[in-house]
Amino acid sequence: MNLKEYIKDKREAVDSFFHSYFGKPGKPSVLQEAMLYSLFAGGKRIRPVLALASYEACGGNPADIVPYASTLELIHTYSLIHDDLPSMDNDDLRRGKPTSHKIYGEAIAILAGDALLTEAFRILSDPSLSGRVQEANLLRALREVAVASGLNGMVAGQAQDILSENAEPDHETLEFIHMRKTASLIRASVMMGPILFGSGMDVLDALSEYGRNIGLAFQVVDDILDIEGNTEEIGKPVGSDERANKMTYPSLYGIEKSKQIAKELIAAALSSVSSFSPGADPLREIANYLLSRRS
Amino acid sequence: MNLKEYIKDKREAVDSFFHSYFGKPGKPSVLQEAMLYSLFAGGKRIRPVLALASYEACGGNPADIVPYASTLELIHTYSLIHDDLPSMDNDDLRRGKPTSHKIYGEAIAILAGDALLTEAFRILSDPSLSGRVQEANLLRALREVAVASGLNGMVAGQAQDILSENAEPDHETLEFIHMRKTASLIRASVMMGPILFGSGMDVLDALSEYGRNIGLAFQVVDDILDIEGNTEEIGKPVGSDERANKMTYPSLYGIEKSKQIAKELIAAALSSVSSFSPGADPLREIANYLLSRRS
Predict the structure, then answer these.
(1) Do A147 and B150 touch, CB atoms closer than 8 A?
(2) Is any Cβ of chain A less than 8 angstroms from the Cβ of B118?
């Protein structure tokens, strides 16, 4: 299979859903404009692609769950807008473009994030957007996403990340931050497939393991790219973690050991789906891509 | 019936759910502390009480839906924390106490709001918290709450409110703001009862009308109290709307006409539930209370 084509195809389906869902500009128009600005600022749609690929790995047709997979990008985008705020990471650039508050001001940026998060749950609560998913499974997928994003998930990770700036790195805190800030939503993205399809416990367990491992690997690679990448490719200044005294894998283990950890996590992810049919090939390819990516 | 007792009883049920749900302090503890600080800063729990009373009006036992009704207070509290931020309304006091960002800083205040919103949807997606509600009805109630809170609801109202500061008031914009910023979540609170109970279309329509009318009346009375109330009772300095050049009913219609409008809205609300059994008495009493309240 051609992963580049696969991702492009899925990304177009997701973007097309966004265009239809946010088609009619509401009032006040600047709110929706701010939401769409960040949504179309160059995100790779990796979380929706993971949900679609895992649904396919379970035997489903990805086209049936595009609206629900898309919600993962809404939640990811909301988290970036809020993380970039002056009171948080105070970033002026994201993917090479000015961040939301630099263009729309802090108030609209905060509200655009709030609306993205809320619309994600609105979409996840609408069975009519697919017609192919059982209501009980939709409710369960929504719950998985909410758990991954909330008080014991992404928000806790971001809070701990901010509180840990300038602190001496230790393994427990580092893993806490990375698991919650990044891995939990990636794992929930992977879990959306089997949950919406109604798969059995063995499939759920295997994909949970896959999701947890690629999720953590994703953040470790991010940490490495912040040191070894180049500004143009990663869309923000290299070395920003170090300047902000962020707790990262390289800051604790050095760069070589961090690369080794990422490699082992991806190997573990691949191993947990080794018994899956060729329908899981996209998941396998994505795992390898996450390790080798340059941006 | 004794409305004061009724509200006290329901408030205790809601608070008791919060204590059990947020019982074990997670990590980082300051995040949960900030959430609980705002949650227990003196809110009257009027939205949960409305949901419980409307469930009762439909023939249900309010005790069965306390967790779901409580989510309305989580969403209301998140909106207050974000609205009070320096980049929004920049309020130092709320209900006579320092606002979240004055105590925890802006970053934790924003994240506490994000977590409150997300946990609301997590609770609304968990049928095991009641065991008495059909999953399809829970999904539908969640959707109603999300629509009321998101891009075409509360967030739009707050965005338009901020964008309209210092603008010449006009009826269309004023109603847009009040309907979305306040009335939509109050209407959704009332709708939660019949939706979770599985009531028929006539009941849904009547309660939708009741909710819309008391919701708008609630905000008109708020506008009036900001002029005629006293600082101690309303918990923030009197006249803050006027100083911030907010678009309010009194600023457009004057205080007497605004009182007349509030009275008519409450009369319309009462009329829409006039055919309901005595089970709807709490809804009737609440409507009257909203008109006469001093805080």
Answers:
(1) no
(2) yes
